[in-house]
Design a protein that fits this description.
Layout lengths: L3 E8 L1 E5 L4 E3 L4 E2 L3 E5 L6 E9 L6 E4 L2 E2 L5 H20 L10 E8 L10 H15 L6 H11 L11 E5 L10 E6 L7 E8 L8 H11 L1 H23 L3 H20 L10 H17 L4 E4 L6 E6 L3 H12 L30 E8 L5 E3 L12
Parallel strand pairs: 7-9
Antiparallel strand pairs: 1-6, 1-16, 2-5, 3-4, 5-10, 6-9, 7-8, 10-11, 12-14, 12-15, 13-14
The structure holds ligand DP6.
Length: 385
């Protein structure tokens, strides 16, 4: 049987200027522009293989070894857009095989446990559109492709680039100018590191989509955030990245995380994503920066209690020295076993039981965008291996 396959990997991104609020729910158009750092795929990535054949009667999807089928409206929207672009190519060049008319089999896997509690939708949709764009040999730019990923999950559009990425909100009603662009590539400022403290929590967090809808509808503070705060911060943060100015970058990152959690609290009913452990980590990082007399580490929190702490490599021994002192009992330090002897001991006083609220630490850094790969998750029948 004739079968075409392609595989790609895509990274996780963690926003330093948060996307929170939609002006159009179907097209996933945001109420503000946002900025993120793309993380290293060696630690966190989604691998997706896409296969198509005239024998596949319908589209199907397998996630982390389980057949899920194509259920969500958002996945359907992404596949529709990708097939439309492929169809345009086929119409221009009738000798091309009619891939746009055949079923698609999509098989996807994360290299990190879903139980780690990390939102994987960004990497997931970015890998899905990257693999299919490759399968269909689409000539569009990454920014164009990012508009398709955006329909899957807003933050996914930013995972189409490596390094430092902006999602420009745009102002067109059809979303044709709401896309991701590169602010700076990895090698512009490669010393950026991230320590993710996975915070344990039994409660189910409010999903981002419902949370942001509620904030848009009920929070007064939110109007101030999108009109007065974010537009200026967007420009200031891009400049801080261009200047490799960690002090400004870190200051804005922490302020923006707090601004986002403030509008969550201002929603009716209030949405709480931070828990006591998250708040302890916030205090710890402020104590460190205070002691250093400058910002050497910056925290940020998404729609959940996990902390992501950004810092520069030259301050690693200080930052990880402190975190290790109080969180050495959680798994995840194996990666830096050899570096531990250089960690600087800290005299900062902190709750010695705080580690009990953290299930693991992921030590990572900045990384590139989606990668094409020969590693395939489908067998020669187009089914999961
Ligand atoms: C707090 O991209 O998951 O992580 O577009 O509804 O899928 P949907 O939302 P999603 O929201 C991410 C929200 C955030 C901030 C951010 O990543 O910018």
């Amino acid at each position: 049987m004739s079968i075409f396959t392609a595989s790609a990997t895509a990274p996780v991104n963690i926003a330093t200027l948060k996307y929170w609020g939609k002006r159009d729910k179907t097209l996933n158009l945001p109420t503000n522009s946002s900025i993120s750092v793309t993380l290293d795929q060696n630690d966190l990535r989604t691998l997706t293989s896409a296969a198509t054949s005239p024998d596949f009667k319908s589209d199907n999807l397998w996630l982390n070894g389980k057949e899920e089928g194509i259920k969500g409206e958002r996945t359907i929207a992404c596949l529709r857009d990708l097939k439309k672009l492929r169809k345009e190519l086929e119409d221009q060049n009738p000798s091309l095989p009619k891939l746009s008319e055949w079923g698609l089999h999509i098989v996807s896997e994360n290299n990190f446990p879903t139980a780690a509690g990390l939102a994987s939708s960004a990497a997931g949709f970015a890998a899905l559109v990257s693999a299919i764009a490759k399968l269909y040999e689409l000539p569009q730019s990454m920014s164009e492709i990012s508009k398709i990923a955006r329909k899957g999950s807003g933050s996914a559009c930013r995972s189409l680039f490596g390094g430092y990425v902006a999602w420009e909100m745009g102002d067109k009603e059809d979303g044709s100018d709401s896309k991701a662009v590169e602010v700076a590539p990895v090698d512009h400022w490669p010393s950026m590191k991230a320590a993710i403290l996975v915070v344990s929590d039994d409660k189910k967090d409010t999903p981002s989509t419902t949370g942001m809808q509620s904030t848009v509808a009920t929070s007064d503070l939110f109007q101030y955030r999108i009109k007065e705060v974010v537009p200026k911060r967007f420009e200031d943060m891009k400049k801080a990245i261009q200047d490799r100015d960690f002090e400004v970058f870190g200051d804005l990152t922490m302020k923006d995380s707090n601004s986002f959690h403030a509008v969550c609290l201002d929603s009716v009913p209030p949405i709480f994503y931070l828990n006591d452990t998250s708040k302890k980590i916030i205090k710890l990082i402020h104590k460190l920066n205070e002691q250093e007399g400058k910002i050497v580490a910056a925290y940020t929190f998404d729609a959940g209690p996990n902390a992501v702490v950004y810092y520069e490599e030259q301050n690693e021994n200080k930052v990880l020295g402190l975190i290790h002192k109080y969180f050495s009992k959680v798994p995840g330090w194996e990666k830096v076993t050899e570096k531990k002897s250089q960690f600087i001991d800290s005299n900062i006083e902190f709750d010695t039981d705080a580690y009990k609220g953290v299930s693991r630490i992921i030590l990572t850094g900045i990384g590139p965008g989606p990668q094409s790969t020969d590693q395939s998750l489908v067998n020669d029948k187009g089914l999961p291996k």
